[in-house]
Amino acid sequence: MTSLPLSLNGFSPLDREEGTLEERAGALRDEVFGREVFVRGVIEVSNYCRQNCDYCGMRRDNRELRRFRLELESLRELVRHGLPGTITDLNLQTGEDPVGIREIVLPLIEILRHEMPRLGISVCLGTLDPKIYAELKQAGASYYIIKLETGNRDHYREIHAPGNFDQRLAAIRHLAETGWSVSSGFIVGLPGQTPEHIEETLELLGHLPLAGASVSPFIAGEQTPFARHASGNFELTINCLARLRLRNPSYIIPAVSALNMVHANGYVRALRAGANLATINLTPSTDRGDYLLYKRNRFIMHEQRVKDAIAEADCSISAVSLAETLKQKSCR
Ligand code: SAM
Questions:
Q1: What pLDDT shows up at residue 330?
Q2: Which helix (H) or strand (E) element contains residue 43?
Q3: Residue ranges around ligand 1 (CB below 6 Å)
Q4: According to a count of CB atoms within 10 Å of the terminal CB, is the N or C end of the chain lower?
Q5: Residue ID of nearest Cα to ligand 1 atom 27
Q6: What pLDDT was estimated at residue 293?
């Protein structure tokens, strides 16, 4: 049994049942999904952003950041010749950039749908006009990632998370009602976060119409108002991930690369604690550094690292896409 501190900011990671919380969460994932992990690619298409989140380096007030939008033609080449064989799904991510969505993301999805009909398409593009959600869906995307960041309304306002809390909740509900599989999530260790906020967030994530959710540790972002704050506690983050799994057996829960920034074996620990999705970063190395979520030297999960982590966690790679799995589930 892993030895863990008995109390983490008031949370107890152990209880009276057999095994640690992480072991039980891993066993539940095995029961529901088996030991097969979905592997998706992510391309960070644009770092323009109209939001001003205190935790994110791409906030609009960061005037030192070189802004980029990848070109459609080079993206077309990348997906034609540069997609690793292990991936079944592709996630297109941007800052909140309606121009980049219209000019690049939408046409790219149309191309993918036509040229690679078996590839599942996820997007993580922010809170948008419902008309754009409909166009993205019509083009061929099916999985929308839109994180709450924090489940407490006042805290959400204090950290200047996108728009306001009610708009974010309304967006999640609208997306689910209009046929998207929706994934949300939160950041552990955000400045101003209390144990009560975490409880509230876990509770809310269990009640929203979601197909998945993530837990990431806060990483103090360069060129942000939170630059001098401490990063999120790894054990608390993994504890939240395990509890997310135990409360929501059917959720798709990613292992996020930021875990490796706060613990040498963070990614593998997440897979052992019930995560069932891994992501290979495919953003061209020339632009990756400027997709400044937090630090320029992010921990980049390339294909070999993802394969090694999955093997080390005694899992294997799913041959069926996330999109297909969720489609079949909704048809049952
Ligand atoms: N702009 C879109 C949105 O708001 O949904 C999507 C892209 S956003 C840059 C991607 C995610 O990065 C956010 O949802 C947030 O959880 C994460 N992120 C940003 N800054 C972070 C930080 N300092 N530490 C951990 N995660 C962070």
A1: 81
A2: strand 36-46
A3: 55-56, 58, 93, 95-96, 124-126, 146-147, 149, 162, 187, 216, 218-219, 221, 258, 293-294
A4: C
A5: 293
A6: 86
Tokens 């983050």 -> residue: 237
With the most atoms of ligand 1 within 8 angstroms of its CB, the residue from 144, 216, 218, 228 to mutate is 216
Spell 32-46 as b/e; 16+ CB within 10 A means b. ebeebbbbbbbbbbb
Ligand 1: nearest atom to the Cα of 149: 16
- Nearest-10 Cα torsion for 74, 111, 304, 186: 100
**pLDDT in the model for residue 314:** 98
**What is the Cα–Cα distance from 185 to 210, expressed in whole angstroms?**
10
Q: Which residues of 83-118 are buried (b: 16+ CB within 10 A; e: fewer)?
A: beebbbbbbbbbbbbbebbebbbbebbebbeeeeee
Q: Which residues of the chain have pLDDT under 50?
A: 1-16
Please provide the DSSP assignment of 122-186 as one string.
EEE--S--HHHHHHHHHHT--EEE---B-S-HHHHHHTT-SS-HHHHHHHHHHHHHTT-EEEEEE
H or E element, residue 22: helix 21-33
Tokens 């990756």 correspond to what residue? Answer: 288
Where do we find the tokens 């990613």? 254
Q: Please say whether the beta carbons of 20 and 13 come within 8 A.
A: yes
pLDDT for position 185: 98
Q: What six digits make up the tokens of 204?
A: 């809310």
Assess contact for 95 and 61: CB atoms under 8 A: no
In this predicted structure, what is the pLDDT of residue 2? 32
User: To test ligand 1's pocket by mutation, which of 56, 68, 233, 279 has the most ligand atoms within 8 angstroms of CB?
Assistant: 56
pLDDT at 226: 97
The tens digit of pLDDT for each residue in 219-232 reads 999 899 999 999 99
pLDDT digits (tens, 9 = 90+) for 161-180: 999 999 999 999 999 999 99
